[in-house]
Amino acid sequence: MAFCTNGCEIGREFAGGGPPGYTMGMINAANNLPGIELGPGVWTDRDQLRFGFSRSSGPGGQNVNKVNSKTELRVQIEALHGISERSRGRLRLLLGSRLTAAGEILMTADNQRTQEANRRACMDKLRVLIVKAMIEPKVRRKTKPSKGSKMRRLEGKRLTSEKKRNRSVSFE
C-alpha cells in the first residue's frame, strides 16, 4: 500500500459508499485530477488539507499520555473542486457543527493508536460525507387518494358505526 504526502492511501478500496468498484482516495491519473480525490469527480489540492495532532483520549494505554495521536483535518469547503453548489449546500447541512464559522470542515479522529490510522479515519469520514452529499434526494410528488379508496374507507366507517350501534341495549 502506498501513501501520498498527506497520508491518504493510494488505491485503497473504500467501504463507505460510492458506485460499485469505485476506488476512493486515489490520485487518479486517468481522470487527470491534480489533487486528492474525495468522491466521484470531487478533489482538492494536497496543500488544502491541513492536519493537526494532539494528545488523544482514545485507546493506547500509557502510550496515550506520550504520543500525539489525535488527528484533526481541516479543509475549506470552497477548496473542494468538482462538486455542484446544490451538493455543497447538502454537505453544509450534513456537516452541522463540524463546519466552522470560517467555512472550514473540521474532522477529528482519536479512536486509533497511531497518527497514520487516525489520519486515514479522518479522510474516510470526509469521503463518506461528500458521497452522501452528492446523492440527489428524490422529489416528493403530491398524491391524492383515489375515489374508490375514499368509498372503501367511508364504507368501513359506516359498518363499524353500525356494529357499535347494534351493541347497545335499548330499554323500551
The third-level CATH topology is Double Stranded RNA Binding Domain
Helix content: 25-40%
- Whole-number total of structural domains: 1
Give the overall pLDDT as a whole number.
79
Word description of this protein:
The structure is a single chain. The protein is of the alpha+beta class. 30% of the residues lie in helices and 17% in strands. It is built from 3 helices and 7 strands. It has helices at 85-95, 115-134, 147-167; strands at residues 2-3, 9-10, 36-39, 42-44, 50-54, 70-76, 104-109. The protein has a 3-stranded antiparallel sheet with strand order 5-6-7, covered by helices on one side. A two-stranded antiparallel sheet has the order 1-2. A two-stranded antiparallel ribbon has the order 3-4.
List the helices and strands and how they pair.
Elements (H helix, E strand, L loop, with lengths): L1 E2 L5 E2 L25 E4 L2 E3 L5 E5 L15 E7 L8 H11 L8 E6 L5 H20 L12 H21 L5
Antiparallel strand pairs: 1-2, 3-4, 5-6, 6-7
